[in-house]
């Protein structure tokens, strides 16, 4: 497995790989930070060039996942590394509690400890579900969305793609949230939210149109 990124969220993904005993040939890719080089934790090699990554996919392991949180950047990286032979792969903590029926999880999802996902839930490509979030029945989540810790998404809610749901936010049943939406931490969403905006508060109020 090649984890794209070697700081921040990449360390959360490393822990999932550790829990799953999926450390054989594990490596990281970071061509941005000059202070990260050599081996992470004196164990895992850090690649710096796209040629190294391509050689890794061809000779060691085709799997990669994204250890960076920004939704738009995650999409760019998913395409970039797929184009050189990588296979976008999900990492799911064994400490997550996932329903037994009607579950669909897209490639490249990262699901962390304590996440609770009920039945008939659809999770899109490269979605992040952080610690202790709850996703109840019949929820749909679009691609490249980030669900922060302790979020609650209640029955039949629909969350668009490229969204960021802040820590502790609550999405009430049957709510529809558009694409490229930011929900502030602690927000309670009681009405549908259109595309390209930021909403905060209890109850939620749109405060900004996102570009």
Automatic annotation (TrEMBL):
It comes from the Bacteria. The keyword Cell cycle does not apply. The active site is at residue 137. CDD domains: LbH_AT_putative. Residues 2-81 form the PglD N-terminal domain. Belongs to the transferase hexapeptide repeat family. This is Sugar O-acyltransferase, sialic acid O-acetyltransferase NeuD family. It comes from Chryseobacterium populi.
């Amino acid at each position: 497995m090649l984890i794209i990124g070697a700081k921040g969220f990449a360390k959360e993904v490393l822990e999932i790989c550790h829990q799953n005993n999926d450390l054989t040939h594990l490596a990281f890719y970071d061509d941005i930070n000059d202070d990260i080089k050599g081996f992470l934790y004196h164990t895992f090699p850090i690649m710096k060039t796209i040629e190294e990554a391509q050689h890794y996919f061809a000779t060691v392991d085709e799997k990669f996942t994204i250890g960076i949180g920004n939704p738009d950047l995650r999409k760019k990286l998913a395409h970039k590394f797929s184009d050189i032979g990588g296979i976008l792969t999900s990492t799911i903590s064994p400490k997550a509690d996932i329903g037994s029926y009607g579950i669909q999880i897209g490639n490249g999802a990262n699901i962390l400890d304590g996440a609770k996902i009920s039945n008939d839930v659809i999770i899109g490509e490269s979605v992040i579900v952080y610690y202790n979030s709850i996703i109840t029945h019949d929820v749909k989540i679009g691609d490249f969305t980030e669900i922060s810790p302790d979020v609650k998404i209640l029955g039949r809610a629909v969350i668009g793609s490229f969204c960021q749901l802040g820590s502790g936010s609550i999405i009430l049943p049957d709510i529809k949230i558009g694409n490229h939406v930011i929900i502030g931490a602690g927000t309670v969403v009681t009405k549908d939210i259109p595309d390209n905006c930021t909403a905060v508060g209890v109850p939620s109020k749109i405060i900004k149109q996102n570009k």
